[in-house]
Amino acid sequence: MTLQFDEAYYRRFYKDPSTRVYDQKRHAHLISGVVGLIEWFGVDLIDVLDVGAGLGWWGQWLKKNRKGTTVISTELDREICRKYGHQQADISTFRLEKQFELVICQGVLPYITDATGASAAIENLAAMCGGFLYLEAITQDDMKDAIDAHRTDLRVELRPAAWYRKRLLPHFREVGGGLYAARRANLPFFALEAPRDTRR
Question: Has this prediction a pTM greater than 0.85?
């Protein structure tokens, strides 16, 4: 990765009301929804990994609302890591020898322009996920009607959604809304809670 994810980047895409997509208050609805679903499916959040944590919104919400949860967060920029308490790491090469009930990877993978690096990143995410993965990644499929090009950083690799699904499939079952259940967790789902598992 050669792009800068520094204070100027976060000011433009996350802080400035005239250029950001959403603010922290709206983002909190996403977090509470994801966490609520995970807990509904019977998984308690003890350890969480936030990859590319940025301004630390996930960690702040969890610290306030799930006080027993431990959060490890990563970012690329040294100063952002220092300011927000993240570990400096690149997910294409980063893998811890532990598993997390929730792994968050929001808006990271499209910035890995090398396909081999992006594939390695997915393998690393899968290795560290023992419960659920929350994944957000802009794709080619989103460009027609899902993206506000004026408020979205388009300096990314626009892969087809199928590219991601192919690499996620060996490790995860897609639940919906960006949520993926780790196969190793062996969680049961009703037929209408998640699409049919094509691996069975």
Answer: yes
